[in-house]
Amino acid sequence: MSILISYIRNSMGSKAPSWSDQWGGNNFGVEGDDDKAGTNKGKGSGSSKKMAEAKAMASAGLGKAKAAAAVGADKAKVAAIFGAQKVKSGTSLGIKWVKNQYQKRTSK
Asked: Compositional bias (Low complexity) spans (predicted)?
């Protein structure tokens, strides 16, 4: 088993580049990737421009957002009130039903 491991280490070690070859010289990749790095910079400026536009739109529409949030909060409040009323009436009907069933059994 140890012979196989030493064979693999020797055969792979001679073909693979060293750590310093891969990562040395402040390059985070292969030397041929320099031309690709320039194309990514152009894409980043477009996305930052879109982000700036989105922030401007968000700050301009802040009053509208607050109004929409107030309307949404009012709708949620109304829905919660109706839901609570349904629970209350359902509980009341359930308790009355249990009382009636108990009275029917005890009167026999």
From this structure: 39-50
Residue 13 resides in a domain: no
79 in a structural domain: yes
In a domain, 19, yes or no: no
Q: Assess whether pLDDT exceeds 90 at residue 3.
A: no
- Specify if 94 maps to a domain: yes
Instruction: Give the angle 10-16-17 at the CA atoms, nearest 5°.
Output: 125
pTM above 0.85, yes or no: no
CA atoms within 13 A on the CB side of 88: 6
pLDDT band at 90 (very low <50, low <70, confident <90, very high): very high
Residues of the domain holding 98? 74-103
**Cα separation of 23 and 38, whole Å?**
19
- Residue 32 CB burial class (10 angstroms; 0-12, 13-18, ≥19): exposed
DSSP single-letter state for residue 33: G
